[in-house]
Structure formats: structure tokens, C-alpha cells
Amino acid sequence: VSSAIKQASTMIKSNHRRFSRGVIVLLSNSFGKRFATAIQEASNEFKETGQELISIDYSMELSAGMGLEDIASPGYYFKGASNTPDINAGIISALCDGCYSIGGAADTYKIAEDNCETRKGFLPTVYDDEHNYFLSTCELATVAG
């Protein structure tokens, strides 16, 4: 797990992702005690740079998800699949600070475009890092018709 966190951190730091928000989502049921220190250090290094680590704990027993809460960023530890709405909201918040919401439509481009048009909105297109940065930092508002 620690090497996966380090590798993901390196990928997020690459020049191709300079405007991306750094988020690691870890789905697990536990990790071994002998690896706990290395995993804690890797997660702390990642979080100290302002990135978020989401830990989704699928262990069945209360104590089985050992350490998963400790390595998660504050507010980003989720226990089990029973909290799906909370998990979805947490991931959206971590990835884009709440700038997007989950829609009820399929995610193909044409359906998304039609859905936006029906709601009198526009579907933004990202051509490069600058467009991505602009769209991820501006507040997109819906104008009532």
C-alpha cells in the first residue's frame, strides 16, 4: 500500500497534471501491522503537500479496518458501502471542491449535451491545461429561465 501511495503521489505531481487536484482513493479492508509505519509515512507525506487521501473501509468487523481511518485525510474516512451517498459526496468534494454534482443522466457526450441544453446550460469542453484550470476554479452557475 505504501508503494502504491508513493507511486500515485509521483503521478499526481507530474507536469501533465499540474492543474489537477491531488486525490488518492484507497479501497481496502485493512493492512498488515508490519506495514503500518511505512503506510502512515507515505500517506502523511502525500497529505502534507495539501492533497487528500480518501479511505473507504470495507472490513466486516469493527476492528478489522486497522489504520485506514488514521491514514485518511480529516473527514475522508468512510466505513463500508452502506454510506454510498456520503462516499460520493466526499469524493466529489475532494476531487473538485464541490464544483460538480452527480447527475441522473448517462455520461455519453450527446446525452450530456442534450441534458445541459434542456436545462438551459452549456457543456464545457476542455482543450488543454489552461481550460481545465479555468473550469475547475470558476463558479459555474445555472441561470433560471
Automatic annotation (TrEMBL):
Protein name: Uncharacterized protein
